[in-house]
Amino acid sequence: MGRKNEQLRWQLAKGLVQALHLERLASKYSRTTVMAVFNLINGGFSIALVAFVALITQEAFIFPSLGATAFILFYVPLAQPASPRNTLCGHLTGALMGLLALYMFGLQGQPSAFTTGVDLPRVGAAALSLGLTSCLMVVFRVAHPPAGATALIVSLGLMPDPAQLPILMAGVALLLAHAFLMNRLAGIPYPLWSAAPEPVLPQHQASRAD
């Protein structure tokens, strides 16, 4: 599985290099170098794009867990957690569970934990938000690890206003749009919604692959 992901990542970087007519770089430098530069450019540009929209609108389009999402979208773009379905549903689940935890522990409208410190209600809210987010992502098969950070961002009071939810999701959608464009430009069939399921190997082949 690790070898397959490595080949996909190289195909992604190589495809973009070819699309931009930079074949000489691909032949001159190692795979690791080309892929590192690819992630440097796309990871940085995608976050800069979202942050610039936040600057223009003065709204919370940018938040910490988008950094982890950007890395997944450009490092393993064909993995299930990187699909638009998992990314959107995962972050939405995390944000909703964060809000639910705030209301259950009476923390709505309270200053963030980074301002006042952590007390017992905040401990409960953080634990409940992450636990519910993890549970629901498994139940609905929309695993997206950065969504766990989104749940904590909300339950710790950094984005406690329900009116911020559409803005949060718009930031995720903007990041996905950039990932779709760059991955398709690179020749990678990044999905419109859900990633193709990985084939299930027979037991003896799976053991041999490991």
From TrEMBL:
Bilayer-crossing regions: 34-54, 60-76, 88-105, 125-143, 163-181
Segments forming a coiled coil: none
Keywords tagged on the record: Membrane, Transmembrane, Transmembrane helix
Domain HPP transmembrane region: 34-191
Source species, domain of life: Bacteria
PANTHER family named among the record's database cross-references: TRANSMEMBRANE PROTEIN DDB_G0269096-RELATED
Protein name as catalogued: HPP family protein
